[in-house]
Amino acid sequence: MSVFQADILHGHVALITGGGTGICRGIAEAYLRHGACVTLVGRRPDVLQAAAAELSLSTGGQVLGVAADVRQPDAVADAVQQTLGRFGRLDTLVNGAAGNFLAPAVGLSANGLRTVLEIDLIGAFTACKAAFDALQAADDALVLNISATLHHHGTPLQLHASAAKAGLDALTRTLAVEWGPLGIRVNAIAPGPIGDTEGMRRLAPGDVGERMRAQIPLRRFGTVAEIADAAVFLRSRAAAYIHGAVLVVDGGQVIAPPSLF
Ligand code: HXC
Asked: Which of 21, 100, 248, 254 to mutate to test the pocket of ligand 1 (most atoms within 8 A of CB)?
């Protein structure tokens, strides 16, 4: 049961990269449940079409699935055009496509680093550029970047993702300053550890997750639904003056020192 009014996003159209799985699928579901139309963009056509069909059925909303890799500017531009063709407008771009793996810096190739930068950072830039004209034409446009908290510390095995997300935060702030006067809000959400996601399965194997949980002030992982709630809030008029912000949603993990007691 949502805490938000059911039609709070009625009439909105969102394009969500990485929307076929994980956190961004949760954001897509929440947007649909609150009245938005959604385009899901992802690399794997089978995963994407299955997600689009399931979300359409479960929410009753209008979902378009477009298979595209954010590393391919023409494919991203086509996803924007398909969105405009189907829904007639685009109000919200959620940049959630991300690649990640655990690798020590000495074991990370330049291509491994480049791959994650190309997906997480340059992919977001590419989508922003592709969506710019449509966003500028919208009455109340929003770019919402999905960041992380890795780069708030020196997180081991995560040089590539940390660099990419630090860059994404910089992109968020710079675009907020450049695009704010054009009527486009730009914000980010930085999720902490979110349970039942591919990211956590890959990045917190074995008992790492349990040790991580014990250090979180709220003593639990977040849920996809909690990140989706933050995304609905930032999309809503309640967040009309929130601009250039990176909203950390992590149960207090990033501000807590290692527990001594
Ligand atoms: C070291 C690796 C590697 C690994 C890939 N590479 N996996 N290096 N350890 N485990 C290197 C490869 O060796 C290669 O470099 C380069 O990266 C490109 O690899 P490819 O497999 O050719 O690329 P691609 O098929 O495009 O896929 C790579 C990937 C994929 C996009 C990174 O592995 C992936 O997406 N995985 C996870 C997706 C995911 O879980 N996303 C959610 C992320 S969660 P060389 O030099 O050999 O050519 C997230 C949240 C962060 O981001 C916050 C968490 C708390």
From this structure: 100
